[in-house]
Design a protein that fits this description.
249 residues, single chain, globular, Spore Coat Polysaccharide Biosynthesis Protein SpsA, Chain A
């Protein structure tokens, strides 16, 4: 008797990124996966017609106000609207490399004790050379040598990165992102909590996606410093983000 494929909700946070969001929605819905697929866009009061275009593309859209937005709040809101077996997170400016992304991510959940899986994020093809060096060329050589999934024993920067991660929804419902990490780092903290409870998280080298921010070398250095600071919970600071990324969020 064949087992019914796990259903999946792909959750995407968005603010004024319709030009990349809409192609991403189509990429998700055209994935080579037999299970039920839905896309949930959590929109942060976009003014670029993201909401209407996302709905036309086939996504469910939920909204979070500009004054209410934090990274964990928005992600938790998206998960609250899902009834799927698995939830996956990615970014509105991500691109899928091929049609196997969903199937690859969900393949890690055959063991019912697995609560999370994540993979690598490659720089977008049109990214500056600085980002390609950081995302593509600075990966530990050991990850190229062995493409088999690996059990994670410690949560560090990048563990369960929310631009390319999958979670078992039944577990996430009981253990959502910690809203104290308003500025980010909630994904790493979530992984640390899960590992502390003896749960299984998998790093899958075959689970890859394009995701970066098209930053100059100077801005990228600021971003890395910012990421390192998120090991401790901090409130969301939109002005700080605008400063180092050189654009408005």
């Amino acid at each position: 008797m064949k087992t019914k494929p796990l259903s999946v909700s792909v959750i995407i946070r968005n603010y004024n990124e319709a030009h990349t969001l809409v192609p991403l929605i189509y990429q998700v819905l055209k994935q080579d996966y037999r299970g039920q697929i839905e896309v949930i866009v959590v929109d942060n009061e976009s003014s670029d017609d993201s909401v209407n275009l996302a709905k036309k593309a086939g996504a469910k859209v939920v909204s979070i106000g500009r004054n209410d937005f934090t990274y964990p709040k928005a992600s938790n809101l998206g998960a609250a609207h899902s009834k799927a077996d698995i939830i996956a997170y990615t970014s509105a400016h991500s691109q899928l490399i091929d049609a196997s992304w969903l199937g690859q991510g969900i393949s890690n959940f055959a063991d019912e004790h697995v609560v999370g899986a994540y993979g690598h994020q490659w720089a977008l093809p049109d990214s500056p050379i600085s980002e390609k060096i950081f995302y593509n060329w600075s990966r530990p050589f050991s990850k190229f040598k062995d493409s088999s999934p690996k059990l994670i024993h410690e949560s560090v920067m990048g563990t369960m990165g929310a631009a390319n991660c999958f979670m078992r929804r039944s577990y996430f419902e009981k253990h959502p992102y910690d809203t104290k990490y308003g500025a980010g780092g909630e994904d790493q903290a979530w992984a640390a909590t899960a590992l502390g409870l003896g749960k299984i998280i998998i790093y899958d080298p075959k689970l890859t996606i394009y995701h970066s921010h098209k930053l100059t070398a100077k801005s990228l250095f600021k971003q890395i410093s910012y990421w390192k600071s998120l090991a401790a919970p901090q409130p969301y600071d939109r002005e700080r983000l605008n400063n180092y990324r050189g654009k408005k969020f």
